[in-house]
Amino acid sequence: VKEYKLEKIKVIGDCYMLAGGVQDKSGKRGKQRDLFKASATDIVEQAQMREIADFAMQILDEAKKINESVDMVDSEVIRNALKVKPVRFRVGLAEGPLTAGVFGTEKVQYDILGATVNLASRLESTGLPEEIQVSPSFYDALEPLGYIFEKRDPVNLKGFGTYQTYFLKGKKPLQMTIS
Q1: What does the alpha-carbon distance between residue 101 and residue 90 come to, in Å, rounded to a whole number?
Q2: Which of 14, 32, 81, 87 could form a disulfide with 63 if both were Cys (CB 3.0 to 4.6 A apart)?
């Protein structure tokens, strides 16, 4: 999480919630939009989205490695005795505004709220195991940067209606031209 400059928000059940772009390097929370021109802001936001996408792809790769190592155990009897089950993640990625703050008086907790958080949650819950489902705006920002997506049939997301979503499948190798 630190490597990708992301922030763990909380864990609820099997949900691990994290966010990018919530805290900048100076420790100030939130975006300082007045410090950037629109084009610079877009670049900063795309960088944060790339970090989140790269983190999600790495998590799925690590889960795949764990599952492959479990599959290498020769004995099905041992696997059954250990009650080893495959690690399968569903990931939902959305971008947009949110509200962040410290809530509570007796048990103080940092949390994030808003439509963006709800959309990411709906994308996760309607996704498929071992897939990263992204919102249209996430797709629009990262597809021109060489990220590979698979278009999914429109999905009905509770509270949002029918959405065209995409599965993030990977990244094209960086190609450099030397002249």
Answers
A1: 26
A2: 87
Spatial neighbors of 84 by CB under 8 A, at least 6 apart, are 70, 73
Can you list the alpha helix ranges (DSSP code H) found in the chain? 38-71, 76-82, 115-125, 136-142
Strand-strand pairing, 147-151 and 166-171: antiparallel
Looking from the CA of 132 toward its CB, the CA atoms found within 13 Å total 21
- The answer to whether 92 touches 121, Cβ cutoff 8 Å, is yes
- Residue 178 identity (one-letter amino acid): I
Bridge partners for 12 per DSSP:
15
Radius of gyration of the chain (CA): 19
Cα–Cα distance measured from residue 95 to residue 135, given in angstroms and rounded to the nearest whole number = 8
Q: What is the pLDDT of residues 40-98, one digit of tens each?
A: 456 667 888 999 999 999 999 998 888 887 766 666 666 676 666 778 889 999 988 88
Q: Six-digit token pair at 46?
A: 């795309």
